[in-house]
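Below is how a single chain appears once it has passed through the pipeline. First comes the sequence as given, then the structure the pipeline wrote out for it. We keep one example in the README because the format questions we get most often are answered faster by looking than by reading.
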Amino acid sequence: MIAPTKPPIPITPPTVPPKTNPAGCYPERSTQAGKLGTFSSIADGLPRPTRNDPNPFLFYPPMALDQTNEQRLAFGAEKVFLDNAQGTGNWTTDVPLPGVSGLVSALNYVNDNLIYAATHLGEVYRLVNSGGWTATAIHAAPLPPDVWIWDMMVSPSDPNVITAALGGFGTGHVWRGIVNAAGTAAVWSNLSGTGLNVLPGAPVNAIALDTANPTHLFAGTDVGVFRTLDDGVNWIAWREGCPTLRCTTSGSTLRRGCCARPRMAAACGSAISTPPPAPTP
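Resulting structure:
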């Protein structure tokens, strides 16, 4: 991720896990726009593997910046760890997730009072700061259990409306959650399409929307990008001259790439209503 400062501040896991933690990657930070040799560890205060708990977080753990304050950073593990100085403050706040079975796989840091966290076992939590952070489980049927949640998107007009991108096979891959007024539960519905215009049966790794047209959603899958103009009722392939590649997300940008091809990006802002021209060979 990149904090929107001048110069920009990249925050990323190292490419190779350190010998002290072969189970996964700890975050690093550069204040020189990612210049080679300028990254330093911001891992002090994060959990370390032990004999009884050798994998306290995923190999590539999720992180998220507060969308209203780029100094606040969240890190997903068995808990959600928070820092008010981009990881340089020793992660003094940790938020337990009641009844959790999985490890945090997706985060959306809405503001300084609200965070959504999801796990690789299909669990979803709503974290609220009311003089102290607490978490409430909001996953429930028909949201599929035990399925990796790769990404979560929050409606820009209503923070109680969330959309989750799921991996796995044999199930819907885009789900909408409507949180009740008390913030204690959510009603879930499948937005993976109907009839012939359904998403392919492949993992969805990223979800984004057109901020000017919030019913226009974009799903980055293992087999390319798909678009819906009616809030998930009908999906169509949206490749616009690009090859079929695995997709990930960064903010409101879907990124397409694989280890053998150049990386391409399509911004999912207001301009996305008019598809970009195909790239010139």
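The radius of gyration is 18 Å.

See the next section for the split statistics.
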